[in-house]
Amino acid sequence: VQLQASGGGLVQAGGSLRLSCAASGRTVSTYVMGWFRQAPGKEREFVAALSWDDINTYYADSVKDRFTISRDNAKNTVYLQMNSLKPEDTAVYYCAARRGFATTIMTDYSYWGQGTLVTVSS
């Protein structure tokens, strides 16, 4: 599975962005999909995850009620809709995939995209 993240950019605080993660090589309709982020000088952290059957979603407390993860199986693409962005959301965002159950643990994910930079100005 190859993952390609896109959609990052510069946005003012309070604005919105939608990140996309396009998968190729294999359909990811039955994969757990996750988003992680890494801010400058910090470790990579969990942001959101979607169960393989799209029934369950999981969010970090810092993004709950602002971010939404979703999947379009026809496009083999996963999205992260980010609203009410804050300067502390500035980071490189990575999408990831795994088989099995959804987790928030980075090392549980087998496949990773290259990352897309999100910068939120105050």
Which key terms come to mind for this protein?
seven-stranded mixed sheet, mainly beta, four-stranded antiparallel sheet, 11 strands, 122 residues
Note down, in words, how this protein is organized.
It is a single chain. The radius of gyration is 13 Å and the shape is globular. The mean pLDDT is 97. A hairpin with a 4-residue loop joins strand 7 (67-72) and strand 8 (77-82). The chain contains no helices and eleven strands. Helix content is 0%, strand content 50%. By secondary structure, it is mainly β. The N and C termini lie far apart (37 Å).
SSE map:
Blueprint: E1 2-6, E2 9-12, E3 17-24, E4 32-38, E5 45-50, E6 57-59, E7 67-72, E8 77-82, E9 91-98, E10 111-112, E11 116-121
Parallel strand pairs: 2-11
Antiparallel strand pairs: 1-3, 3-8, 4-5, 4-9, 5-6, 7-8, 9-10, 9-11
Brief synopsis:
With 122 residues, this protein is mainly beta. The protein has strands at 2-6, 9-12, 17-24, 32-38, 45-50, 57-59, 67-72, 77-82, 91-98, 111-112, 116-121.
Low-pLDDT residue spans: none
State the separation between the terminal residues, measured CA to CA: 37 Å
Nearest-integer average pLDDT: 97
Q: Largest sheet, if any?
A: 7 strands, mixed
